[in-house]
From TrEMBL:
InterPro entries attached to this UniProt entry: DUF1697
Protein's UniProt name: DUF1697 domain-containing protein
Pfam families, per database record: DUF1697
Source organism: Lysinibacillus agricola
Organism lineage string: Bacteria, Bacillati, Bacillota, Bacilli, Bacillales
Amino acid sequence: MTIYIALLRGINVGGHNKIIMAELRSSLEQLGLQNVKTYIQSGNILFESGETEEILQKKIQDKIKADYGISSFVVIRTSEELQQIVSQSPFSDQKISEADNSCKGECLHVALLPAAPSKVNRDKFLAYTNERELSIINGRDVHLLFYDSIRNSKLGNNLKKLEIPATVRNWKTLMKLSSMVEELKYKKSK
């Protein structure tokens, strides 16, 4: 069994696409997912399954559509991929600290994609970087560092230039999900 993290796009944002997480856990258990846990209301789901990412993505999207009437794009990462994201931030501690001192809200984010963007689309998106809005793309993960705020940022607002659906999580959320993965692994080892 593989530990996966499913990240739902556009759930419980601004009063739209409301899903109660306890109900979502129950729905996903009906798919045969095991040890289903959620974190906060924005659609962060930890679970175990023996199925592949592609099959799980389709099943979860279809289940949400059937049960809630919501078309939410789902991005999936294995626990190993999540651990790699949080252990290998491409930004130096100094840059993160500088941004954290000036940012209104969270300064460090990762946009998670189902596939790596093309070089052409990467270049279109990275054209919006500047000294206050930084980005480094590692495969399917777009690391974002803001010295002001992700809200109303040119970089954040132009993720669509990648031409691949993305869901964005702040660093604290990713760290909490990483911690939940470690807790599950610890429980399984006993």
